[in-house]
Amino acid sequence: MAIKLFDSELKVMDVLWKEGDMTAKQISDILKAEIGWNMNTTYTVIKKCIAKGAILRREPNFLCHALIPKEAVQEDETNELIGKFYDGSIDKLFAALLGRKKLSVEQIAKLKQIVGDLDEVDK
User: Fold this and answer.
1) Could you give the count of Cα atoms lying within 13 Å of 96 in the half-sphere of its Cβ?
2) Low-confidence residues of the chain, pLDDT below 50?
């Protein structure tokens, strides 16, 4: 696993992934409005992300740039989830997800399309 990010760090990263490069102040303003964080909290979390190599800080104005793409974090988190709770078995994860909720006709069709597309790649 590349970089392990905690939920608070993911909140900061999510702002950068959605908005692109921003100053720490801009990130702070967004997170204050969205979840009520004060500036010190946001700056502390940004500094933790910088220390982990997830964010690059540039001057002027403490400009923040995401160094890792969202897709890489999603893949790492998914792999960890599968390994931790489903013995590394993707089919067990899908069985658990599909068994929890009734799917709409559209959702079933989308899943069939995804599986079909994967099958075509293997040929």
Assistant:
1) 10
2) 1
